[in-house]
């Protein structure tokens, strides 16, 4: 009896979480649309400010930062939709999104006024994220292929076969 009550509670909690994730997907689409509008507005403002129709390096960096922020939001949306479809968080996609976010930080960072320790810390994060992404991307490939073949009911063929 007690186990049955817990299972119903867990089912209800999963239902709430499932709909909460759907709500997050809807809100993320809103954020993406607003981000695209912001990119367009930022670009328009830079182009109509004297000197007209010329983007300086700092204007381009600001625009790149806005573009990358929208791309990060799109990656987060993809993470949400994959979670909704497969009920699994794909670490590769999360790592790629984090790499894109730290790359955005590096691109828009003011290298002249930033604290050297802050820049060193960002560099360490970039290196750690890159190594982590490489490890996730390369090492479990064999396991992933075995798992895929198991689901498909086929045999894995390696180059030596």
From TrEMBL:
| Stretches of the chain forming a coiled coil according to its record | none
Q: Name one GO cellular component term.
A: plasma membrane
Q: How the protein sits in the membrane?
A: Multi-pass membrane protein
Question: What keywords are assigned to this protein?
Answer: Cell membrane, Membrane, Transmembrane, Transmembrane helix
Subcellular localization is given as: Cell membrane
- In which domain of life is the source organism classified? Bacteria
Which residue windows are transmembrane per the record?
Answer: 21-44, 64-84, 91-111, 117-136
Which Pfam families has this protein been placed in? PsiE
Name this protein carries in UniProt: Phosphate-starvation-inducible PsiE family protein
């Amino acid at each position: 009896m007690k186990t049955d009550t817990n299972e119903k509670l867990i089912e209800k909690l999963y239902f709430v979480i499932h709909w909460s994730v759907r709500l997050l997907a809807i809100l993320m689409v809103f954020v993406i649309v607003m981000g695209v509008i912001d990119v367009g507005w930022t670009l328009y403002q830079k182009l109509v400010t004297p000197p007209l129709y010329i983007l300086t390096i700092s204007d381009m960096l600001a625009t790149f930062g806005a573009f990358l922020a929208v791309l990060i939001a799109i990656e987060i949306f993809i993470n949400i939709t994959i979670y909704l479809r497969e009920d699994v968080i794909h670490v590769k996609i999360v790592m790629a999104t984090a790499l894109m976010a730290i790359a955005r930080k590096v691109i828009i960072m003011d290298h002249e006024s930033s604290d050297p320790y802050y820049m060193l810390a960002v560099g360490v994060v970039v290196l750690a994220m890159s190594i982590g992404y490489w490890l996730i991307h390369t090492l479990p490939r064999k396991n992933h292929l075995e798992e895929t073949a198991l689901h498909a009911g086929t045999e894995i063929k390696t180059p030596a076969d």
